[in-house]
Amino acid sequence: MARRTNDKRQVRQPWPRPWRPAARAREAGGQPDYDSYGSLLRFKRLFEEHPHPMWVYDAVTLRFLVVNAAAVQHYGYTEAEFLDMTIMDIRPPDEHARLAETLATLRQESAQRADYWVHCKKDGTRISVEVSSHALTLAGRPARFVFAHDVTDQLRMETALHESEEMHHLVIDHIPHQIFWKDLDSVYQGCNHVFARAAGVPEPAAIVGMRDTQLPWAHNAERIVAEERAIMASGRANLNQEDHMLFADGSMHWFLINKLPLHDQRGRIIGVLGTIEDVSERKDYQERLEHQANHDALTQLPNRSLFNDRLEQAISYAQRYEHTLLVVFIDLDNFKLVNDNLGHHAGDELLRIVAARLRACVRETDTVARLGGDEFMLILLDGVASTPSQALLQKLLDSVSAPVMLGASEVTISCSVGVSLYPGDGIDAQLLLKQADIAMYRAKEAGRNQVQFYESAMQARVAERAVIEAELRNALARKELSLHYQPKVSLRGGEVTGMEALLRWHHPTLGMVSPARFIGVAEETGLIVAFGRWVIRTACAQAKAWQMAGLPALRVAVNVSARQFRDKGLADDIVAALHDSGLAPRYLELELTESLMMHNIGEVVATVARLKQLGIALSIDDFGTGYSSLSYLKTFPLTYLKIDQSFTRDMLGDPNVAAIVRSVIALGHSLGFKVIAEGVETEAQLAYLRRYQCDEMQGYYFSRPLDTGAFAALLEREQALPPAQPGDPARRTLLLLDDDADVLAALARLLRRDDYLILCAQSAQQAFELLAMHPVHVIVSDQRMPEMNGTDFLGRVKKLYPDTVRIILSGYTDLESVLNAINTGEIYRFYTKPWEDQVLRENIQEAFRYHQLLHGMAP
Ligand code: C2E
Ligand code: MG
Ligand code: MG
Question: Which residues lie with the beta carbon below 6 Å from any ligand 1 atom?
Answer without folding.
Answer: 486, 502-503, 514-516, 519, 528, 532, 535, 558-561, 591, 621-622, 645, 678-681, 698-700, 705
